[in-house]
Prior knowledge:
two-stranded parallel sheet, 2 helices, about 35% helix, single chain, Rossmann fold
Amino acid sequence: MEGKLLLVLDMQKAILQKPIYEKERLIKNINTLIDAFSSHSLPVVLSRHTNNSSLKSQSDGW
């Protein structure tokens, strides 16, 4: 898996409170990927979108 990077986007609370198809499966799969990359000392980058409403930086939903 050399030269790989895992990029996880927008998994903050406010996003996950919305109806998402197979949400629990999605979360499980993302966590499995994070564990796999971490166990191989590969980089994992977590990025969160922010705005001035429900995704305001440092808010409960962010």
